[in-house]
Every structure is written in C-alpha cells, then in structure tokens.
Amino acid sequence: MSSEHVDEISGVTTTGHEWDGIKELNNPLPRWWVITFYITIAWAVAYTIAYPAWPMLSSATKGVLGFSSRNDVKNEMAAAEATKVKYVAAIQSKTVSEIAADDALREFAVAAGGAAFKVNCVQCHGSGAQGSTDFPNLNDDDWLWGGKVEQIQQTITHGIRFAPDADTRQSEMPAFADVLKPEQIAEVSAFVASLSGPLRNQTLIEPGAKVFADNCAACHGDNAKGNRDLGAPDLTDAIWLHGSGEAAIASQVRMPRNGVMPAWVGRLGETTVKELAVYVHSLGGGE
Amino acid sequence: MLDQAQVERLDAEAVNSAKTRPPLYAARKKIFPKRASGLFRQFKWLVMAITLGIYYLTPWLRWDRGPFAPDQAVLIDLANRRFYFFFIEIWPQEFYYVAGLLMMAGVGLFLITSTVGRAWCGYACPQTVWVDLFLVVERAVEGDRNARIKLEAAPWSARKLVLRASKHAIWLIIAVATGGAWIFYFADAPKLLGEVVTGTAAPVAYVTIAVLTGTTYVFGGLMREQVCTYMCPWPRIQAAMLDENSLTVTYNDWRGEPRSRHAKRALAAGLPAGDCVDCNACVAVCPMGIDIRDGQQLECITCALCIDACDGVMDKLGRERGLISYATLADYNANMTVATAGGTSQVNPSLVRTTSGAFVDGLAHFHLGKIFRLRTYIYLVAWSAIGLVLVYSLLTRERLELNVLHDRNPQFVTLSDGSIRNGYTVKLLNMIPAPRTIEVMLQGLDGGEMSIVGVDQAPSRSFSVAVEPDRLKVLKVFVRQPADRIREPAQSFEFRIEDKASSESAEYIASFNARENDK
Predict the structure, then answer these.
(1) From CA B381, how far away is CA B387, in angstroms rounded?
(2) B463: β partners
(3) Which of A81, A89, A261, B420 registers the highest number of CB atoms within 10 A of its CB?
(4) Cα-flanking dihedrals φ and ψ of residue B327, to 5°?
(5) Chain B contacts of A13, Cβ < 8 Å?
(6) Same domain for A36 and A81?
(7) pTM of the full predicted structure?
(8) ipTM (interface predicted TM)
(9) Range(s) of the domain holding residue A55
(10) A155 lies in some domain
(11) Same domain, yes or no, for A209 and A80?
C-alpha cells in the first residue's frame, strides 16, 4: 500500500492490480451504491437473527420469527387437504356408480385412486395395471368376478380367497392330478386350448370335450364361458391368467394356482376403496 | 526549556493519512438542468406525450371479441394464460411471437443505434421520459435552474419546506399512477380500478403498485442520471454499436475552438477565436450534467438538448447554427483535419472560414445518404425478414389444434376376443373465443374403432365432441382393432379433427402397437 500508482491519463490512483497491462482505477464508488451495500449487510445480519441460520453442535439457531420449513410443509399439506374436503365428503356419501357418473367426482376419484393404486396395488398388478402371469391385467375386458364398478368395489373391499375376511370372494379350483388320468388331462387341455386357439390335434378333441363335460362344466359352464359367481374364468377368450397353451392349461388342471388378493377396506378405508374402484373401472375395461 | 531545533523531524507519514487516502465513496453532485427550448426539445415533448399516452391509456382501450373473451384491447391474462393484443390472441405455446418481437426489438435497436446513435436513450427510454416528466414538475414547483440552485443552498424555511413537500407529493402521485397503470395490463381495467379503490383487489395488485411506485419515485425523482451512468448496461454496449458513420451529438471543435468569453477582445489582439463563447449553456441544460465539449462520453444519452441551447446562443450571436450538432465521427474527423491543417497545428478558425466569414469549401456536412450503407441495409433486411415471417405465421396459424399422447404403460391391451386396444390422450385445442363442435375421426387402421371415455356412444370411427370457447378439451380415447386385421406390431394411422362449420382441420399421425406375434 505504500507505493502509489497513478494512472497518467485520468490522474486517478490505481489499486495496484494489473492484468495484461490493464490497471484497475481506484475511483470512489457512488454513495448510493455504498449505502446499498451496507444495507445488504444489515439485511443479512437481521435475516440470520430472524430465521434459522447459525449451525450449533447438534442443532441450529431457531430464529426469532419461529419459521420452520417442516411447519410450512404441514400447512401446505393442510391447505391441500382442505381443498379436497368437499370431494371426499361427496365420495363418502355417494355410491360408486354415482361417483363414476359425475364428471368432476370421477376426475377426482380417478386421480386419488390412481395415487392409491401406485402405493398399494402395483406390487402385484404392475405400474400400468397390466398384470402379469398369475396376476390379472385390469385394463382388459375380462373379469373373473365382474367388471361393474360395484363388483370391483366389492372385490377390493373384501379381497379374493382372503381367509380373514368372512365376505371375501371364495372359490377354489380342485387339483385334478389325482382325479384324472394323465391322458385325460392331455385331452381336456387340448380341447380347452382349441376353444380360443388353432386346432392342433383333432383326435384329442372329442374325448377332451367329454372329460370337460364330466369334470369342468360344473363351474366353467357347458359352453366353457365361465361363471362370475364362482370366479370361474371364461375359457373361450384370448386372456389367460395363468398362461395360454396346452402345457399351461394342463399344469393348471393338475395343480391349480389359486391367487389370493387381500381385503383392503380395513387398511385403506371405504373412501379410498371407492376411489380405487372408480380408477380401475376407468382403465378401459370397466363394464 | 525544550529546544525544538534539537528534535529531528522524521520523514514519515501515516499510510492512511487523509491527504493521500482516496475517499471511500463519492457524493453525487446534484444537477439542476435548465429548461431548453428548440427543435429537439419540441420533438422530445412530442415523444413524451406519445409514450406516456400509450402507457397510461392502452389498458383502457376496448376491443369486442364476443361474449366468450375479454373486451380489453391489450390484456396479459396470466390467470388464464392468454395474451390479447387487439385482433390477436396468443396462447402460451405461441410465445415465439413474443420472442420474435424481442428479436425485432434487438435488431431494431442495432439499426437505430448504428444510424442515429443512442436515440433510444435520448428520447424513448422510460427512464428518460419519466425523468423528463419529473423535471417538468420540479421546474413548475421550484422554478428553473437558478431558482433551484438558490433554493438548494438556502437554509430550511417554511417556503422551502412547502416547495419541497409539494414537489415530492406530486412526484409520488405520478409514481402511484405509473405503478397503478401497470396492473391494468393484467386484468380488466375498469373492474380492477373499482377493486383497487374499494380495497378488494388481490394483494399482488397492491404489492405491484407499491413496488413500481417506489422504483418510479426513486429512479425518476431521486436517482435520475445515476441510473443511466451506473446501473444501465446499454452505455457500455453502445461503443460496439456505433461506427464512424453513426450520428451522435457532437461538439464541433473545428469551428468552436479556441473558445473564448471575450472573442472580440481576442480578435482585436490578433489572437484566433472560435465560435464557442464558453457560455456553458450546453452544460446547464444537460440532464446528465456533463460537458459535451469534452467529446463522446459514456454518460451522454444524446438527448440533443445541448444542441437546442447552443443553437439559441448562435442565433443571438448571428452565427450559423450547428456548433453542437448531430454529426458523424467521419465528418468530424475530416473537418478536424482541415481545421488543424492535417494535425500539424491547434484548431485554427482561419482554416475553416474564408475572410468573409463563410465556411471554406471541402468541409464535410451530413446528408441523409450517409445513413444508407451496407450495415444499415443488413440490419434493415434482418429486421424486415423477422417481421415478415411473424406476419406470415400469424396470418396462416391454426386456430384448431390436435395433440395426441399415446399410452405407454401398458402400450397395448389384449381383449377377450383377441382384439388389441391402445389408449390415447387426445387434446383438442379450440383457440377461438366461440364454442365449436369438433368431429374426431380415425383414418387408416383397418377395422379400427374408437370409444371415448365419458361419451355415451357405441364404438365408431367418428365422434362429435363439443368444445368450450377458447379452451382445451382432453379426451381419453381407446382405439381397438380386431385380431385378424393387425398387420404389424406398430401401425401408423391418423387422428383427424374437423370443424365442419369453418372447414378447419388438423391431423395427428399416431402409432398403434400390438404384440410381436399378433401380426
């Protein structure tokens, strides 16, 4: 600081800093600028007093205004909940078909049900509700227990083959491995596969039809169209829960897999179940 | 007794002694611009009236758009995300028109600056216009330059207090009106005015008014020239925009120097004397407080008031106007060469004037042709090209649009009869303020049929959908194709929408997915 550099042209002292021959003039700042600068410093100090700022060993200063981002979130969530109240109240008081028929309510229920679906249902039914082998696709128009919105509500409420719920949807396909001979299983599998697919082995069809009439028609119906009261699937369509083709059918005849879906009403409550029912119904396959 | 002579005086000085220490900050030197009169001052009054008129009155203009749209001619409707400008309505996705206008403004600024210098700063910039307006108030209340200087120096008295208070009060009223006018661009002006007055307007309206009142008052009344000198980036950029053929406000040394307050005495003594009588009229009128005779400066906003002041003096002295004038650097340099005999001497008036007092031949004078040069043409062509593209796209733009989103999860669904279903979110954009019935149709996709969620109609290849005025309608559409008609895993087809009444239409090429082995 002892040496003074004075710029020849302007006669102003320089700061002594030089870059590529360019020196910085030490012109005084405008007063308003300096005042503004001091105000920002004062503001910063006041800010750290007013708001949580200084870190301590295991916490931080709280700030005299008592601000907390956690409370902010809580308030915002409460405000969001408050806007939902009138819809939730309407959903509580109306039946699912009434909800589905009302544009605004349906929109709300589909959004809310979609969110609940992503949390509770995707583990089995997939994120797009497309299902997979043994887990039904909820987008299609094939329903084991009925695709009306009330029927869907019933299924979600009480579950399927869910022992703790007395009202659960109940049915069980018996294992035919001990009842039928292996060739009978082969025959009936070929017959069932031919109902929706190409005919492969004509010789098995006729005996297969007889095996079917004797053993399967009781639940699946004489025409193999299934029975929704029993959750017995339609065997003539293109949709196969446990896999298509003779081998998968034979396997299901021998040692059937009977899927279980839990009852959700105890866990989610009636409102959410209604929303879920409307959401699932809206996926495109609803009846 | 102490003998001072015995004490040695050391040659030492404190490092921060007041003598050498530069001040930490510089107080502003107050400027008291004198009222100017003349051609440029009149032009500035005109520009001020037009620009202020546009700013304050525009929100009150009405434009009938029918019952389904606001009737305000210029309205930025943020809540509904619409921008109305007379016969033009812009949706958010058409913001490129605003981007185009900004590009035109940029190129236009280059064009103007390369030809007539910082005309924007001098005449049309809001800072300049409002400072001018605030100065009008200041002059009306406190008097012209000398009276204001006197008042500033005078001790506080009842009169000074009254004058100052009324000046600031009027400034604040203007500031409130300025902030108040701004909000009317964003809502229906008459209705909002009623709400503001009765205290029922939205808080954001009051906050906006308060902020803009503050900035107008502080920038226009208190900070004035400091905004241009310290805060605005444009003075820094101008050097890159100007060239030697750009017009700028110039003090013509070649006829002014050597300046003298006593020209007659100097001439009698056989000394040379230029036209400048050093009356400082140019400095007194300058709203930036600078001396144009120091040459081109960052602070000069080229408001040309010094030209008016100097022309008035020249008229009184019976000399030609234009000692300070709009001139190009090229002309100035050429004339300086003449006046200094090629740079070999000081400016000598006898080199630019004949013995009779007329200017010698060969001096460069400005003429309009100098404005038109390659650079100007390039800017002009670029500016017009952007403008024409904007106008063309505005005239040919669609007011009925179609957006389609293909469901991706799942991509397709197999139905019980083996047919395949794909889901789409179809968005119909009715961009006119009138209700319409839109025909939604499938084109291509052999045997395909669609159904629309919430529309009670059997699957079909065509649906009629009512769309509200100036609104987007979102449809959930399921398209289904029988198994035996599926040709390949991904087929192209078209969604087509038509407004039968106006014969407008739009298409969207969509894809229909199926399983690989379903073909």
Answers:
(1) 10
(2) B440
(3) B420
(4) -145, 160
(5) 22
(6) no
(7) 0.78
(8) 0.80
(9) 1-67
(10) no
(11) no
